[in-house]
Amino acid sequence: MNFRNARARQPEIVRSIQKDSRYTNELSEDFSDLLRLTGPRNWIKYNLFTKLMAELTYHGFASLNNLQTLGEEYTGIIQVDADYKQIPSRLLQISAILLEFGGDALYIKVLQKLNRHIEDNDDIVPEAKSKLKSIVKCMLISPSYIKALHKSLFYLRSDKYQISKRCTGINYVLIRHWLQPEFSLYGYKILGVVTFLQVTFSVAIAAFETWKEHKRKQFEITKSLKRFINRDNYTKQIEGQRNASSSCILCLEPRMHTTLTPCGHLFCWGCLLDWLDERYECPLCRETLKKCQVVQLQNYL
């Protein structure tokens, strides 16, 4: 028998999931209370897993026994395969349950290990490592946006509410579809449009913030490079001035045996004495100068 014309709509699917969520929350609290009896240390360590255990226990029991969940029974829907012909196999249902309630944790765990592998791998060049880490970061934050887009598609098309159901091809159909009440679904379509616009706006903001951060990093790199270049030019300038100041103006060579005149000028010892053999004045300021007035500096660079 083909149940394609008896597909469940948004209200039945949403109410079913909300009902199941209520029961799993109560079961999770019961598991938490039992865990508390084993001691505060175990409760603190394993309490986060009680929600997962409740989900797997609740949905797994129904799937293994080919039963409806309480939410499905409340709304009068059942699961069928992708062809809308028969109840999906236990393996397919268990796969959907594992994907729905453990897929996110597994996905994040794999990406975290991949990020550590990229960070610790010295064979990857820094530029490629930075780009790979950016890709992993985008992949880490992408599930929330993908789920929101998928939910908006569900509100618009009354298709599949859960991504796990889409991956496994499981559908929901009404048992007594001929008794379903007639009411407008435009409210869900409006909700789907609003959800889509919200997600699009959020993605645009996240992309803009990423672009701003990229530009900021580029600006910091450029600023550091300019500072390095300016510092290098300044160092070269100082070295040039130092070299120029350590040269003798008479021979234009680095000063040998630096000699000081009373007027404060520096020359080579031999160059200055040769100059004073011709005239008794400073080569620079023309002040009267005699050989007995010059002083040879010791340990002067």
From TrEMBL:
Localization: Peroxisome membrane
Superkingdom of source: Eukaryota
A single GO cellular-component term on record: peroxisomal membrane
UniProt cross-references to SUPFAM superfamilies, sorted A to Z: RING/U-box (SSF57850)
Transmembrane segments: 186-208
One of the Pfam families matching this protein, by short name: zf-RING_2
InterPro entries according to UniProt: PEX2/10, Pex_N, Znf_RING, Znf_RING/FYVE/PHD, Znf_RING_CS
Keywords in alphabetical order: Membrane, Metal-binding, Peroxisome, Peroxisome biogenesis, Protein transport, Transferase, Transmembrane, Transmembrane helix, Transport, Ubl conjugation pathway, Zinc, Zinc-finger
Domain RING-type: 248-286
Pathway membership: Protein modification; protein ubiquitination
GO biological process per UniProt: protein import into peroxisome matrix
Alphabetical list of SMART domains matching this protein: RING
Membrane topology: Multi-pass membrane protein
GO molecular function, one term: ubiquitin protein ligase activity
Enzyme class: transferase
UniProt record similarity statement: Belongs to the pex2/pex10/pex12 family.
Identification of the protein by name: RING-type E3 ubiquitin transferase
